[in-house]
């Protein structure tokens, strides 16, 4: 059994956040570049909506 701290990590190519190995990526860990589906789609991170701001 491995500890979570012993798992390999990478940095997301889209958002720059570190992410750790997951079992579903075991077969193609070398090709994994993004931490999530949203980052893979290339959506810019707008962040949480601001209170009181309006968009025209």
Please supply descriptive tags for the structure shown above.
two-stranded antiparallel ribbon; little secondary structure; 56 residues; 1 helix
Task: Give a description of the structure.
The protein has 56 residues and is largely without helices or strands. 9% of the residues lie in helices and 11% in strands. The chain has one helix at 37-41, and strands at 9-11, 18-20. The chain has a two-stranded antiparallel ribbon with strand order 1-2. Strand 1 and strand 2 (18-20) form a beta hairpin. It is extended and about 50 Å long. The N and C termini lie far apart (54 Å). The relative contact order is 0.19. The model has no long low-confidence stretch (mean pLDDT 82).
**CA-CA gap between termini:** 54 Å
Low-confidence stretches: none
The number of E-state strands comes to 2
Read across the widest sheet, the strand sequence of neighbours is: 1-2
Globally, the shape reads: extended
Could you state the order of secondary-structure elements as H and E?
EEH
Which structural category fits the helices and strands?
little secondary structure
Q: Which percent range describes the beta-strand content? A: 5-15%
Mean pLDDT: 82
Please give the share of residues in helix: under 10%
Number of helices: 1
Largest β sheet strand count, sense and barrel closure: 2 strands, antiparallel
Q: Indicate the radius of gyration in whole angstroms.
A: 16 Å
Secondary structure elements and pairings:
Layout: E1 9-11, E2 18-20, H1 37-41
Antiparallel strand pairs: 1-2
């Amino acid at each position: 059994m491995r500890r979570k701290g012993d798992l390999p990590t990478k940095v997301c190519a889209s958002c720059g956040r570190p992410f750790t190995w997951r079992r579903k990526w075991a077969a193609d860990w070398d090709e994994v570049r993004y931490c999530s589906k949203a980052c893979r789609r290339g959506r810019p991170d707008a962040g949480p909506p601001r209170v009181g701001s309006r968009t025209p």
